Amino acid sequence: MIDFQKVIEHIRTEVTVIEDKGTVATYIPELAKVPIDKFGMALVDQYGKTHITGDGEERFSIQSISKVLSLAMAFAIKGEELWQRVDVEPSGDPFNDLSLLENENGIPRNPLINAGAIVICDVLITELDNPREEILQYIREIANDPTINYNLDVARSEKATGFRNYAAANLIKSFGNLHNTVGEVLDLYFDLCAIEMSCRQLSHAFYPLMNLGKCLRGNQYLTIPQVKRMNAIMLTCGFYDEAGEFAFEIGLPGKSGVGGGIVALLPNEFCVATWSPGLNEKGNSRLGMIALEKLTTNTGLSIF
Ligand code: DON
């Protein structure tokens, strides 16, 4: 049996000495304050045992990783009908690209680029009585942690600088694919990006996607066919224009955020989260990618 604790500790000692740690995102001013030298990792195995190293308990802004959690909730509610509002093709473009929206009549390429996540927020606003509270509650329940919360300073900071997201939402609205107001939808979108979680909490929140839809407590959140679809979307769309590179280097479905977090999983084996705030030129955590490459290469465990 693999000693995952030993494996991730060894990886931490190897990656934290790398000098080029990438660059902390500055386009959301609040994120620019995070120290570059943070590194955390958490891995929960198929038996439900969690292994932690470095800053794996420290909370950070999950940013686009929230797109998977809101998608899971919307998919569980709407089922296959959801795909009439958003496609499932990789974009091969940066996360905030607008040109495809114009060419494809306001149907976002996939739910993990900004435009797609904005449509998912619109769906949840229509479906839920108190979307902001209910989505947070949903995440707290899956992760079995009532302390998970929004960071309102980060949400405000992003709202003040979110011009491209307003442009995307307005474009979607002009094509009739947004049923609520642009302001209402983006307020929810910014709040979800501003959720703070640790690597430990993220690895637990994504556990159902590696465990046939069931969380660590055994509650079913998604059906087995839905889990298949979620993981396929993460594999092909979770890293924007670096999705091919992530599949090539790491070989797992996963999702990144500009706060420097990455979550990835091997169905029926493990779910892993890394955090290092320095990003590469594609906006994905530089050390996180290196750490995950070492994890799958050193253990021989990947979907390929
Ligand atoms: O919409 C934005 O720009 C951010 N709140 C989220 C971007 C993000 O995390 C993209 N991921 N890598």
The SSE string, one letter per element, is: HEEEEHHHHEHHHEHHHHEEEEH
Q: Could you name the ranges where pLDDT drops below 50 across 5 or more consecutive residues?
A: none
Task: State the end-to-end CA separation.
Answer: 20 Å
Give Rg in angstroms.
18 Å
* Fraction of helical residues: 40-55%
**Counting H and I runs of at least 4 residues, what is the number of helices?**
13
What features would you describe in this structure?
The protein is of the alpha+beta class. The protein has 13 helices and ten strands. It has a five-stranded antiparallel β-sheet, with helices on both faces. β8 (261-266) and β9 (270-275) form a beta hairpin. α1 (4-15) packs across α13, α5 packs across α9 and α6 crosses α8. It binds 6-diazenyl-5-OXO-L-norleucine. Residues 63-64, 95-96, 114, 158, 165, 193, 256-258, 283 line the site of 6-diazenyl-5-OXO-L-norleucine. 6-diazenyl-5-OXO-L-norleucine (DON) binds at residues 63-64, 95-96, 114, 158, 165, 193, 256-258, 283.
Task: Outline the fold blueprint.
Blueprint lengths: L3 H12 L7 E2 L15 E6 L4 E5 L5 E2 L4 H13 L20 H5 L10 H14 L3 H13 L5 E2 L1 H10 L1 H12 L7 H12 L1 E3 L1 H7 L1 H4 L13 H14 L5 H7 L4 E3 L4 E6 L3 E6 L2 E2 L6 H14 L5
Antiparallel strand pairs: 1-10, 2-3, 2-9, 4-6, 5-6, 7-8, 8-9
Helix pairs in contact: 1-13, 2-4, 4-7, 4-8, 5-9, 6-8, 7-8
The protein binds 6-diazenyl-5-OXO-L-norleucine.
